[in-house]
Design a protein that fits this description.
Elements (H helix, E strand, L loop, with lengths): L14 E7 L14 H16 L16 E10 L7 E12 L3 E10 L5 E11 L12 H8 L7
Antiparallel strand pairs: 1-3, 2-5, 3-4, 4-5
């Protein structure tokens, strides 16, 4: 018996980024492995930020806003993904601080209507030399403001 994924409202904030689940992403039971959800979310964020010129090319000193670390990760699994194919990750910012941010995500159907997992992650921007918190650039903050979830 396959669980029905909860239905979600249309995407009114953030971005819906397509991702692909491959056969080898599934576990022995034929379900998307729990560790793959954060990986696919990370790939979606990487694609989104690269559109804004934020990327890591191997040089931490030149990485700028891409020099960051995860402080916290929370994932709630709602329904199993049972087959390879095209899905999406709905991404948005919950909070954009001076040196940190909290983003929300949903792993969902390609059209964004069914949610399989959701969660949040806290990132801290780091100074490459000291590994201490450092402020986000103004260009990063401007792009981030476009992704902020409106207050309810």
């Amino acid at each position: 018996m396959t669980a029905q994924a909860p239905t979600a409202p249309a995407v009114f904030h953030g971005r819906l980024v397509p991702v692909t689940v491959h056969f080898d992403d599934l576990d022995a039971l034929g379900l998307l492995h729990n560790a793959r959800y954060p990986l696919l979310v990370e790939r979606a964020w990487t694609e989104l930020w690269q559109e804004h010129g934020v990327r890591f090319d191997g040089d931490w000193a030149a990485a700028g806003d891409a020099c960051n670390a995860v402080k916290e990760l929370r994932v709630t699994y709602e329904a199993p993904v049972t087959s390879p194919g095209t899905y999406a990750v709905h991404l948005w910012l919950e909070r954009l601080g001076t040196t940190g941010l909290t983003y929300g995500f949903r792993f969902c159907s390609a059209d964004g209507t069914r949610t399989y997992a959701h969660g949040s992650r806290v990132l801290v921007r780091l100074d490459a030399a000291t590994l201490r918190p450092a402020p986000w650039s103004e260009a990063f903050r401007a792009a981030g403001r476009e992704l902020l979830r409106p207050a309810d």
